[in-house]
């Protein structure tokens, strides 16, 4: 098993600009079932993809691929026509929150928002709109979700992943790759890797993903990577302490970040003495999470946690 | 704020003695308060405690009470005498340095008789994914201190994005602060206008501290701090225009204009990294092995060779930098692109300090080859920790 996505996930792409095209091509090369695109100005046409297969992805495919992706004006039309049950959003920041709400209105179960730079007020509204809708949002400002060998939604490099038994959840893109890389080198492999994004208002949080990993038979341990700002890591630590039976290893970025400065991610800021790395590391340690001293020690920390 | 129905002290800018005098009578008539305050307008704090070089007995901020017994005419005369000495003179405060700042503008403000000082703010509650109103009866004090010492004095109310702050919520806050009668009505109007302003202006934070209740029952923002959401500035060009880049670090401005994320720190090891989380973790690791990072620098997910060159420029311009650590985990960003950027940058900028490069991810072999073929003096690292240790060794004796 895995969480969120697998071989049966049928994926739409919203926003087929330069970035959307590039990553859709990579996803198809990986073997992801991309079924359509939503891009109103090109509705009614098809977009042609072809290239060399990424053999680190879905096994048993030929060495090259071609695909003609139908383009739709609206998400609901695309869903009706393709049966898509997931979507990935590359729409530019001013329109991205609207794209997320449109996907939810069309009844899509999983929305992965890659877009960076969405206004906070827009996300507050989108999140309110999603309440009770049955749609799960991952992101925004995240690398996406991947179940190695089955489905890749987002911008992560596929080849560093290997199917295995560790779940990974992270607020940072490149730090996720760092963890994945080490877990792969140690031949533990991943069940699913989830980037929850670096924004202050996001959809899925650490606790949501930890719950899914806890319930997933194949996942034997979890790597969780947080950073300064907010209290999501403390809430996650609380959950690990009270509910989780599987071993967890972790890392928190930003021990040396000066207070009051936004460290690249909109959500990575220590303000009013809140959201420090120290408080998070302490909460995680108390919860029995093995916290790595540097990202280079993440794999080893996972091995130690597994016992 | 005034344009959005949020009461602030009335006042007028004056560039000449006559303008200052002319401002007095209308202010007294509008506010009904015979007291006025004459302030210098300079870009420095500590004005109230600062004094003029030419007139050591005159402060930067003066409360003029002559109007109480003598009427507006007496207030005007007092303002005239003070303004003559203040305009064109040099004010020295703890923030101006010894040379002081020449005063060319004054601000004449209404006097306020303070009955109570409160704290009021609208800010994001990340756990709730909503803005909240935060209020406290402890005005004029830092809210962090109140939160620590007497958290029960802090009131909170969530703002539903679809509804805004509801009337009953404003009433609850007013009641919780112990307001009654006219001040209570004015407070409710104030807090609702503030919640609307926060939404309309895309603020990360509006903090009114202190919010004062006057003896006449008015509710006025005496001091305010506003932080805007950078991601939403595109829909507020008027606010974007208010940005004063001369008040920011020039290297940080240059980086921002090139699409780079740079924050200067006090250490000696310059870092160039892709991704915000990895950039923070690189700083942490340098510190962990015993060094001090000179900066945070995230070149982003899709940096070009040009941006890498700019990043190098910015790092090497910092005189504290004794060595540079490049840490790249190529995902979308290919290692060969980064390598090309590094080689070009070194050729253009020159390299006078040790350089350690750690490349991993997409096209890593190609990237390493490019650096090797360039003949540059570069130390390769296998991992983040290895790189941090190597740059520390290379710079320790410098």
Task: Give a quick summary of the entry.
The complex is a heterodimer of chains A (307) and B (398). Chain A is of the alpha/beta class.
Describe the structure.
The complex is a heterodimer of chains A (307) and B (398). Chain A has 307 residues and is of the alpha/beta class. Chain A is built from nine helices and 14 strands. In chain A, the strands form two sheets. A seven-stranded mixed beta sheet of chain A has the order 3-4-2-1-5-6-7, with helices on both faces. Chain A has a seven-stranded mixed beta sheet with strand order 9-8-11-10-12-13-14, with helices on both faces. Chain B is 37% helix and 25% strand. In chain B, the strands form five sheets. In chain B, strands 8, 9, 10, 11, 12 and 13 form a six-stranded antiparallel beta sheet that branches. In chain B, strands 1-7-2-4 form a four-stranded antiparallel beta sheet, covered by helices on one side. The model of chain B has no long low-confidence stretch (mean pLDDT 90). In chain B, α10 links the parallel β17 (323-330) and β18. Chain B has 398 residues and is of the alpha+beta class. In chain B, α1 packs antiparallel against α2 (66-86) and α10 (335-349) runs parallel beside α11 (364-373). The interface between A and B is large, with 62 and 55 residues.
